[in-house]
Design goal:
155 residues
Length: 155
């Protein structure tokens, strides 16, 4: 499957910078997998039959939730693209129900970056692109938001 940006490039247009949703989307799945593993290992340490069964059932349920969150995080990252070309900024989310945002670089008035403390440490954040007039779009939880902003503002 081709990337969205490759399908919409105009003649003479080239991609300058690409980024994606940050891996932090996988954090709930990672935590759930660790909890499932701990519950499974706990079931091997417990001697009472009732507790063994309880730990195994809980581990199985948590593993199912972890599997769901793993797929959900992967699918979000797979279906999200954020690119800067020499002419415009393009952001696409969704697979069947697609939502796109495009703004010409000469119409960008300012680019704001919002990062939490954890976002600063792990290099992710929200970027708000303000266009001339009424245009305003916030792209949430993208990787390397400062590099993304620099690719838009540096010409």
């Amino acid at each position: 499957m081709a990337r969205y940006i490759d399908e919409i490039l105009q003649p003479g247009e080239r991609v300058l910078y690409s980024t994606n949703a940050h891996w932090i989307f996988h954090l709930p799945a990672i935590v759930a997998w660790i909890v499932a593993l701990v519950l499974f290992l706990l079931s091997r340490q417990v001697t009472a039959d009732g507790l063994v069964l309880l730990c195994l059932v809980a581990a199985g349920l948590v593993a199912l939730a972890a599997l769901y969150w793993t797929f959900k995080g992967w699918f979000h990252r797979f279906t999200t693209e954020t690119d800067v070309t020499n002419l415009r900024v393009v952001h696409k989310t969704g697979f069947i129900k697609r939502r796109t945002f495009e703004m010409a670089l000469d119409k960008v008035e300012s680019v704001d970056v919002n990062q939490t403390i954890l976002g600063r440490i792990l290099n992710y954040g929200d970027v708000t692109i303000n266009g001339v007039g009424e245009g305003r779009e916030t792209i949430r939880t993208i990787a390397s938001p400062l590099a993304f902003r620099s690719s838009i503002t540096t010409r």
